[in-house]
Request: fold
Amino acid sequence: MAWVKDKLVRDAPAQDRSVKDDSTSAAETPGALGTKVSPPAGAEIAWNVERVRADFPVLRQTVNGKPLVYLDNAASSQVPQVVIDRGSVYLEHEHSNIHRGVHYLSQKATTAYEGAREKVRRFVNAREARECIFVRGATEGINLVMQGYGRKFVTAGDEIIISAMEHHANIVPWQMLCEEKGARLRVIPMSDAGELLLDEFEALLNEKTKLVAVTHISNALGTINPVREIIDQAHKYGVPVLIDGAQWAPHMPIDVQELDCDFYTFSGHKMFAPTGSGVVYGKAALLEKMNPFQGGGDMIKTVTFEKTTYAELPNRLEAGTPAIASQIGLGAAIDYLSALDRAQAMAHEQELLRYATERIEALEGVRIIGTAREKASVISFVIDDVHPHDIGTILDQEGIAIRAGHHCAQPVMQRFNLPATARASFAFYNTKQEVDLLVRTIEKVIEVFS
Ligand SMILES: Cc1ncc(COP(=O)(O)O)c(C=O)c1O
Reply:
């Protein structure tokens, strides 16, 4: 199968075909740990956006007769050709069920699937691959922790702390748990800029707190949260912390050891991989104590009608046939990202954010929701007297894809007293010309409704 490898190497990202030294720690790239991600003033950005765009076939199409401008990356990012090809290679040459087979194809598929897990381990800098559990996405990752950890360890009178800017995926499972157990959900409030009030967080922590679950980046506001401080603070009370990294993973390196988080979860489809892929990292000591998430094949050691004993990690938490093709695709997406200069990618995104913010802020009647000092490349905005759905529809007519709605974060909308916002979210393949087009079309929207 040497040709497969050759093909994948040949199709490696146009940006940089050099293979990076695996020993490079994620923490060496700016932004790995803290919240400061913007490049220093005057820093030169050497990012060849046109070359990177060439890696993404979907970006070549027209929509409504106009070149596609894809600004809905916070919902799902696009998939580079190498990742598409890796999926095809699997389906054409390796497709089979994993772990239980002794035959050639099953071993091939198992090697590829477990190889993807090892890539994830390096991507998040986990100590061991068994700490990286494959799930369908961040939602399933959070539910796995809720079912496995929460249902076992949370009892009546306990408290779980989340934040005011969580996606529903990091609210509803904890609410369900609290209802079942008679526990209490506490919420870290935020300022009008969309920054968490850390003093209030400290005041919420006490001996009843059983878990803190917060987002690394708000999908609705773009705020980058100081998760390291949150983790340190929670650990002073011996409280484990789950970080929802769905919005962080596509943009910046992750180092779970440096962060010292107890759980970290993200979705593949937001980081250039297929849907159905994702990961929840957990410290081995915690994962080992947890109840299995689901029961079924592959997660057992022995089964009799009287009793079942469970397999070791990670299988114990992965019942049934997983999304093999998707997780192998996630491995390929990690290879793709690792071959890019991520610091430059991040600097480019931050420059897009700066430029778009400046231009949108200058428009009369337009208001940006979420003005935190540290933000990812997400801009939520509203226009006086125009429903966000109308903004989204008019932009779509011009080939511009944004998202309009509550972004699965209704409490954020309530906090800002809004039914919805329009949201443009940028990836490293977006350009300043696309920002210009966005702004011109917003001006059109204003004109139509004036
Ligand atoms: C911050 C955040 N958390 C969780 C999720 C849920 O991700 P998924 O639907 O891929 O499970 C999303 C999706 O938008 C998100 O933005």
